[in-house]
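Data availability (excerpt). The following record was deposited with the supplementary files.
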Amino acid sequence: MSGLTLKQSLSPYFTVGAAVAAHWLDEARDVIVANFDTVTCENEMKYLSIHPHGYAAPPDVNAFNRGEITYRPEIKDRESLVHPSLVTDTSGADKFADFARENGLKIRGHNLAWHASYPWGVFEQLNPSELRSNLDEHFKLMAEKYGDCYCWDVVNEAMNDRREGGDLRNSIFHEKLGDDYLFELHGLARKYFPNSELCLNDYSEFRPDKRDRILRTAMALKERGLVDVIGLQCHTNINVLKHGFDGVRRSLDMYAGTGLKLHITEMDVSCVDWHEAPKEITPEMISDVAEVYEKYFEIFKEYSEYIENVTLWGVSNKHSWLNFMGPESGRGKNKPLLFDDDYQPTEALIRINSE
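Predicted structure:
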């Protein structure tokens, strides 16, 4: 491993960032400052963190999100839903933002609107005018507090994830505001964040059908001057080694052809897939994680003319969101990031820095 930190070794190519959460920021601050140019707020800038509420989740959130069950709690505080600035808690986001500013780290704003970060079954009961008032007031508040974010993920994960159907996910925004809602919300972001890059951020970005939806939507936004960046989340796992990386290069060629900047926004490499988590993580799996990182960063460097930033979704394996996802047998055992539980470099980081 070279004597360079991560941001030093990658500085000839692009800036490098990490998602950071306020509750573990203090223990990670030295590693963050030494290794990253940019930071993304993992959760505290999302709507539900900024505007806490007392509505319970449905008994099966996943079934609700898939549209398989209906859940409509009684609305008891409609005024605070229409005017979200009446109920706010920015303490976590403020701690994050103050840390970034004090240490000269650029902030990627994440995110202004996301269907998965609203009180379940509540916004479905607002009419379009009420939802528009909510969005306008929330965007305005975020601009007043965090207008210095150099880039914003505007509507997170807006693309349809199913193999069939139209380009847009059937979200609360699509349902209430119509087919042109992305133009409307990106226009709102352009109004309140005139000095920030606006990003269309999504996952499964290298899957051909999803990629083509992202490309069509990005070009439609570009034609109206409403997007600057395509955000490629790049949540992946070690199974990619079985399939190769030709599809990644082919997709990056197509994304680069749009003339928009590219950000890798949420990268991590899971030791397991979503459905078949093993009872234990083997040394071979950990080595495969390192190989995936090595291959991806080789490709990212090839496309550094187009890629402005690469962000990892976390810093230490200790706090990765993947420890809480997937089958019970795999929880708490993942090794998807560049620093271990003690904030020491993993094999993946060593390989990246050795290139």
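Summary of structural features: The chain has 14 helices and nine strands.
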